[in-house]
Design a protein that fits this description.
Blueprint (H helix, E strand, L loop, with lengths): L7 E4 L3 H12 L7 E4 L3 H11 L2 E2 L3 H6 L3 E4 L6 H15 L2 E4 L6 H8 L5 E5 L9 E7 L4 H12 L2 E5 L4 H11 L1 H18 L4 H21 L4 H8 L5 H11 L2 H21 L1
Parallel strand pairs: 1-2, 1-4, 2-3, 4-5, 5-6, 7-8
Antiparallel strand pairs: 6-7
Helix pairs in contact: 7-12, 8-9
The chain binds NADP nicotinamide-adenine-dinucleotide phosphate.
Length: 272
Amino acid sequence: MQTTIQTIAFIGGGNIAHNLIKGLIKSGYDRKKIIVSDADQAKLKALKKHFKITLAKDNHEAISKAHLVFLAVKPQILPEVCAQIAATVQKHKPIIISLAAGIRLNDLQNWLGSKTKIVRAMPNLAAAVGKSMTGLFAKKISIADKKLVARVLNLVGVILWLEKEDLLDVITCVCGSGPGIIYLFIECLQKAAIKLGVPVKAVDNLILQTVLGATILALNSEHDVKTLREQVTSPQGVTATAIKVLEQNNIEQLFKEALCAAHVRCKEIARK
Ligand SMILES: NC(=O)c1ccc[n+]([C@@H]2O[C@H](COP(=O)([O-])OP(=O)(O)OC[C@H]3O[C@@H](n4cnc5c(N)ncnc54)[C@H](OP(=O)(O)O)[C@@H]3O)[C@@H](O)[C@H]2O)c1
């Protein structure tokens, strides 16, 4: 398969790069075809020790050897990094996959060259276990290049090509930030369960298995989540009592406000 022979470079070897590399290797991707460059030598050494991947001496070397280049640095420093690598990108013409939250395709195109093949991708940390939900957006790249990017990112989860770039900001809030939001929700359930007497040692498995079971059930069900919730909520029953309290405290509004605030922040990052 074509994906097994493409060399992938990561510019930045932090959190998301770590999780993508872990997921790619877990899926059987040839670790010798993964090359990483990072400003932090200690981080690079740790990645090498952990994954036995190839290290580049700098960003230029990584890009010159790769077919696909993930830009995995913080959005705030991306303009500077792009200015530094633009000539190398234009010379070697890899497909660039920007993971940066909020940074627009037009800006990337201005920084890296108008002919550079660029895809914006928003994966999440579950890439490490092959379960990312990744939003993708591109304008000017060929179908063959789109298929290649899709094949690689499908190795670490499910992908969705978006028709409008604005939706990528929404995906960033819902899916990129999603694991963090869901972990908070799980922590709340854990604390409440402990208060009711569940032993601290057992609480992790108890709640995580419940969330996992509910998710897999919903993914495999012919019904939507609302119908499934209604099915387990008999009038005046135990679930109904819990849900009533959450609704009285306006849980839906709380989630709307949280995601709206995240969306505003995402747009702020793009303007900086
Ligand atoms: N974390 C997520 O769940 C997630 C999900 C989707 C997308 N993203 C996006 O992915 C990007 C990276 O996020 P992250 O959480 O992985 O950040 P991170 O953990 O800070 O990783 C970025 C890495 O890039 C390194 N770096 C800084 N300057 C560099 C340079 N000039 N050349 C090469 N490497 C350089 C940093 O080193 P220093 O620490 O020494 O500066 C750091 O190791 C962001 O744009 C973010 O929006 C993140």
